[in-house]
Specification:
It is an enzyme of class 3 (hydrolase). 52% of the residues lie in helices and 11% in strands. By secondary structure, it is of the alpha/beta class. It has one domain: Rossmann fold, CATH 3.40.50.1240. Strand 6 and strand 7 form a beta hairpin. It is globular.
Length: 436
């Protein structure tokens, strides 16, 4: 009976995933922001949550959240686009349209320079809102006197995301006992790709990222899907000038400008510069790199999932402590998109461990806007009956229920003992790829 229910659930998930993949181009046409992948703004659509089985009450939450919306990651991303437009201005190379776009570029540059990687006000607000919904949905976890342990990586946008989240919880219940930590120790497992805190990262994996054979395919994907000719002729009247610049790089730079506008509240858009086909192609190109170096791609030999074991170990250890009667009611963690996209593939969330090789199929089955939007998060919510050892856990992914490949006649609720055993087995069967 359990197998039948699980099989039916898997079929439904695959059908839904296929439908979503078939419509990716249409989704981008309807909402160009989705083409931005990891820059997609966090959305909450008030999903229906399945009530817990009779008599079960939440008592513990284990969470990991990506930092909220931010400016572009590096100041160089602003500098490089601005340098081309300044040169075009000096060479009098603009079309009328290009000169108008230059005005927008200047506004974005002035707003974003020296803010590379910084949390935006929207990013802080996202975490305040997620915290408020968590408090509202699971009030038993946040009773007066409850202990909340929050941890972040050393990166300021993660620390500020943690601060916003915890501040909102304290506003809702000033009697919560909230501790906050951010240091090398927390960074070691919250950002298991951090070279300063994880000096044993395999040189083989680091070389794979920087100069692996996948990059030749990546360049071919770029040549196929990132075609700047039409855009360059719209911006520049001087063909000689266009031949002096890296047109593909400029197109990608403007694409990231467009993608990030939804995160910073400037009221500017660049999506009018791109056709739907161009946005789709840029998305396919962008998605491929993340999938190969951080996702479930066979090309990376599961190095990412192996390093994510450190985070999973933290989840399992802290959960066991809470189940056994520990003092902490909620463990909150704040990190990065690269870690979260790997972690959900290790957890085998439905649709997150897809194995594909074709770049378009990857973008359709594993779209970054769904995998790790800004402020993406997972929540493991634990339930128990009074005086009962049968602990249940439910998984929320971006505040929506998600299923895992563990048999349960109560899905989306799972018996914690089954879940723990499943993930222990996953880790035991994931040896160090560098040792082979």
């Amino acid at each position: 009976m359990r197998f039948t229910k699980l099989f039916a659930a898997v079929l439904c998930s695959l059908a839904a995933l296929a439908a979503s993949g078939q419509n990716l181009r249409d989704e981008i046409a309807a909402n160009p922001g989705k083409s931005g992948g990891v820059y997609y703004v966090y959305t909450y659509d008030n999903p229906v949550l399945t009530p817990a089985p009779k008599g079960y009450k939440p008592f513990y939450i284990s969470h990991y959240g990506r930092h909220g919306s931010r400016w572009l990651l590096h100041d160089s991303e602003y500098d490089e686009v601005m340098a081309v437009f300044r040169a075009a201005d000096a060479a009098n190379a603009f079309t009328e349209r290009g000169r108008e776009v230059y005005g927008r570029v200047k506004r974005v540059y002035d707003d974003g320079i020296d803010r590379g990687g910084d949390l935006s006000p929207l990013g802080a607000e996202q975490h305040r809102e997620i915290a408020a919904r968590m408090y509202r949905n699971f009030p038993e976890v946040f009773r007066s006197g409850a202990v909340v342990d929050a941890q972040a990586t050393l990166v300021v946008r993660c620390v500020l995301s943690m601060a916003a989240f915890c501040e909102r919880l304290k506003e809702l219940n000033p009697r919560l006992e909230v501790s906050r930590t951010a240091g090398r120790r927390t960074t070691r497992y919250l950002n298991f790709y951090s070279k300063p805190t994880n000096p044993t990262l395999s040189r083989e994996y680091l070389d794979f990222i920087d100069k692996g054979g996948w990059q030749e395919e990546y360049e071919r994907i770029g040549d196929r899907f990132v075609r700047p000719g039409r855009l360059m002729s719209e911006l520049f009247a001087d063909g000689e000038f266009v031949r002096t610049i890296d047109a593909q790089k400029l197109m990608k730079g403007l694409f990231y400008f467009a993608a990030d506008m939804q995160n910073v509240g400037l009221g500017i858009s660049f999506y009018d510069l791109f056709t739907t086909d161009e946005l789709y192609g840029l998305n396919v190109y962008d998605n491929y790199k993340y999938y190969v170096i951080r996702g479930p791609s066979p090309l990376n030999r599961r190095f990412p999932q192996y390093y994510a074991k450190a985070l999973l170990e933290d989840f399992l250890t802290r959960a066991d402590r809470a189940v056994e009667g520990g003092a902490v009611s909620a463990d909150l963690r704040f990190g990065h998109d690269g870690n979260l996209m790997t972690f959900v593939s290790l957890l085998q969330f439905e649709g997150c461990d897809v194995v594909e090789s074709d770049p378009e199929k990857i973008a359709q089955a594993w779209p970054l806007y769904r995998i790790t939007p800004m402020a993406a998060n997972i929540q493991l919510v634990f339930y128990r009956k009074k005086a009962a050892d049968d602990v249940l856990v439910k998984f929320l992914y971006n505040e929506r229920e998600v299923r895992i490949p563990v048999a349960s006649d109560l899905a989306p609720y799972y018996r914690w003992n089954d879940v723990r055993d499943f993930y222990r087995n996953v880790m035991e069967n994931l040896p160090d790829p560098a040792a082979k």
